[in-house]
Amino acid sequence: VKYWIYGDPEADAQVVDVKTPYTELTNLYPYCDYEMRVCGYNALGEGNYSDIIQCQTLEDVPGEPGRLAFNVISPTVTQVSWAEPAETNGVITAYEVIYTPIDEDKKPIGPSKKVMIDNPKKRMLLIENLQPSQTYCYKVRARNKVGWGPYRDATINLATQPTRPMS
């Protein structure tokens, strides 16, 4: 069995030598298109390869979103944005943003607020009514049809950041 990622040259193919008319390919990338072909062989050598078939692996939960960026509007307002996960592992369907006031030991000192963003193209959130001079922990994660991926987090105190007006 010879298999490779769709779009890559067949010369880059992995080859699996099996003695049965079936095999299980492992360690494939999730939600990835592959091409493959097979050939029989015996003591006289290899036979002709089959036509190429294309297939796609199943989705898996996404990786964490890209680095969080903050546009500080005022001491109580910020806009947080992030990049799509490098490994979407499927079609991103939503994001979740959680922000929590924390102390210097990063322990919560107030209730967390959770915001669901059901438009996966919207990778930013305007957060208002924050406590002035309070440090917050912000966490963002992505979802696809398999489930939620891990959080990307960042800690920031708006009072220590330069402010920029909204564009």
Automatic annotation (TrEMBL):
<feature type="domain" description="Fibronectin type-III">
    <location>
        <begin position="64"/>
        <end position="163"/>
    </location>
</feature>
<protein>
    <recommendedName>
        <fullName>Fibronectin type-III domain-containing protein</fullName>
    </recommendedName>
</protein>
<dbReference type="Pfam" id="PF00041">
    <property type="entry name" value="fn3"/>
</dbReference>
<dbReference type="InterPro" id="IPR036116">
    <property type="entry name" value="FN3_sf"/>
</dbReference>
<feature type="domain" description="Fibronectin type-III">
    <location>
        <begin position="1"/>
        <end position="60"/>
    </location>
</feature>
<dbReference type="GO" id="GO:0016020">
    <property type="term" value="C:membrane"/>
</dbReference>
<dbReference type="InterPro" id="IPR013783">
    <property type="entry name" value="Ig-like_fold"/>
</dbReference>
<dbReference type="InterPro" id="IPR050713">
    <property type="entry name" value="RTP_Phos/Ushers"/>
</dbReference>
<dbReference type="InterPro" id="IPR003961">
    <property type="entry name" value="FN3_dom"/>
</dbReference>
